[in-house]
């Protein structure tokens, strides 16, 4: 197989959904033995195009060739037989089944009428070992962290001898070491002639693995180029249609009164003796490695998880928070890490997602919703956050990941909130949408609202936060001034517990 061989050719692809033209005469080409980065803002049509290639969606018009063979309406099975495998951003696995059972789902090995579990586990173990992935094939998938589930998806794709592998935001839930492992796997697959489509909003990753770049904007093809022949500024300008002057806009505000204080907070194994305070006019970033306890801390403060002990003091008054309703009424709100699972009702409209947590504001004394207030609230959210949608009656599940994140944030803006907690607010969203979220944080800060946010991206924490609190193994290990620190200082505090274990070994 020639390295220059075109293995995927898509021309004039069109696809529309109710009220939305997702793809408008798009072209795309993938060659064997290359990593092609497919880039664009949220809603650009990247995932839709790849779902057509993998048989999830049918195209309205246009031509599709895989390994020189022209295909009509592809089914997922036909795409798989043609050598195409896709790893979706939102993992699609049977959580109650084992790793091996997930890998062979729909093509189980049998001995007569009995499942050959031993054969499937042995084959799964061989594939995982080849990839140098340390996972027991008998392990129930639902018991694995998201990062390990991601690796199982890759192993599953390779178990069907995929020669075209589509990765949609594959590093969004991985640690630095796991990202290194993923890049090693990608390079190995590329050397074997596999064509890889890599969709990511983490542009800094591209330099490590990417050969070529295809850029889309607003459902249209913009350009393709060799990665080595372009710059990051050119890529961003093509993605957003304008120059992004400042990736991390920071607003300077005078530090005001103490708003929130957390004292001696304990909640399970991952939240141990947490003490910190939030003030007016500042953004506090929580940094640390995956599993450090940052998300668990936000959940305990917001009342999602039960607290074992500790105090939460808002404007000098100790609160009794036993559930999220208590926190919301007090003025503490949370935009959670898993937006689809915890932050949105994907089968409801944007309107209803924004209105639901604000019914106490929208209803009169008789419990009747004011349509005028609801319209105003929704219109302001769409305008202020630049949510890309034809109208607010579109189901939230039909929006791109970044626009879904904006709806999650938007529903809290109508409240007179005093503390806004963001957990990984920019995960899976594009560079322009990230800047909009940062500007939103800055606007809240200027209004005197205390802002706390969790992020696994150290440049983001250093670029937006005023103070950085670092966690490791459920504890706070240090506090830093964001303007006068380095990634090495943060990483040293984030690995404190691991180094202690190593020293005692």
From TrEMBL:
SUPFAM superfamilies named in the record: P-loop containing nucleoside triphosphate hydrolases
Domain ABC transporter: 8-243, 254-498
Biological process per Gene Ontology, one example term: monosaccharide transmembrane transport
SMART domains hit by this protein: AAA
UniProt-listed PROSITE patterns: ABC_TRANSPORTER_1, ABC_TRANSPORTER_2
Annotated membrane topology: Peripheral membrane protein
Domain of life: Bacteria
Keyword field: ATP-binding, Cell membrane, Membrane, Nucleotide-binding, Repeat, Sugar transport, Translocase, Transport
Signal sequence bounds: none
Protein name: Sugar ABC transporter ATP-binding protein
Listed GO CC annotations: plasma membrane
Compartments reported by the entry: Cell inner membrane; Cell membrane
């Amino acid at each position: 197989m020639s390295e220059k061989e075109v293995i995927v050719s898509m021309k004039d692809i069109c696809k529309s959904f109710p009220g939305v033209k997702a793809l408008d005469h798009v072209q795309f080409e993938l060659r064997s033995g290359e990593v092609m980065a497919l880039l664009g803002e949220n809603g650009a049509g990247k995932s839709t195009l790849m779902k057509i290639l993998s048989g999830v969606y049918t195209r309205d018009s246009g031509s599709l060739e895989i390994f020189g063979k022209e295909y009509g309406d592809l089914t997922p099975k036909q795409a798989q037989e043609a050598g195409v495998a896709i790893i979706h951003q939102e993992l699609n696995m049977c959580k109650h089944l084992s790793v091996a059972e997930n890998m062979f789902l729909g093509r189980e090995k049998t001995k007569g009428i009995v499942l050959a579990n031993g054969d499937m586990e042995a084959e799964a173990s061989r594939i995982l070992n080849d990839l140098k992935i340390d996972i027991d094939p008998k392990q129930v998938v639902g018991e694995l962290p998201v990062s390990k589930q991601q690796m199982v998806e890759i192993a599953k794709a390779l178990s069907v001898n995929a020669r075209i592998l589509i990765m949609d935001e594959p590093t969004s839930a991985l640690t630095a070491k796991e990202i290194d492992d993923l890049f090693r796997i990608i390079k190995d697959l590329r050397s074997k002639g596999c064509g890889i489509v890599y969709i990511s909003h983490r542009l800094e990753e591209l330099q490590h693995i990417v050969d070529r770049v295809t850029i889309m904007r607003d459902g249209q093809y913009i350009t393709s180029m060799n990665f080595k022949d372009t710059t990051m500024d050119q890529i961003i300008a093509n993605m957003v249609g304008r120059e992004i002057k400042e990736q991390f806009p920071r607003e300077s505000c005078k530090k005001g009164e103490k708003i929130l204080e957390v004292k001696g907070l304990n909640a399970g194994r991952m939240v141990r003796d947490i003490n910190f305070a939030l003030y007016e006019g500042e953004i506090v970033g929580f940094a640390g490695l995956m599993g450090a306890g940052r998300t668990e801390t936000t959940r305990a403060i917001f009342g999602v998880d039960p607290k074992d002990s500790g105090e939460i003091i808002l404007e000098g008054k100790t609160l009794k928070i036993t559930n999220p309703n208590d926190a919301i009424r007090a003025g503490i709100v949370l935009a959670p890490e898993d937006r689809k699972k915890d932050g949105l009702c994907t089968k409801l409209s944007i309107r209803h997602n924004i209105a639901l947590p604000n019914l106490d504001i929208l209803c009169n004394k008789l419990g009747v919703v004011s349509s005028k207030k609801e319209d105003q609230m929704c219109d302001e959210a769409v305008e202020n956050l630049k949510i890309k949608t034809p109208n607010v009656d579109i189901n939230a599940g039909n929006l791109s990941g970044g626009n879904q994140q904006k709806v999650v944030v938007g529903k809290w803006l109508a409240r007179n909130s005093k503390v806004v907690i963001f957990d990984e607010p920019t995960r899976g969203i594009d560079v322009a949408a990230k800047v909009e979220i940062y500007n939103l944080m800055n606007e809240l800060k200027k209004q005197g609202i205390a802002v706390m946010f969790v992020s696994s991206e150290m440049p983001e924490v250093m670029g937006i936060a005023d103070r950085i609190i670092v966690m490791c193994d459920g504890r706070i290990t240090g506090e830093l001034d964001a303007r006068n620190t380095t990634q090495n200082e943060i990483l040293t505090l984030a690995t404190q517990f691991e180094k202690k274990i190593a020293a005692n070994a």
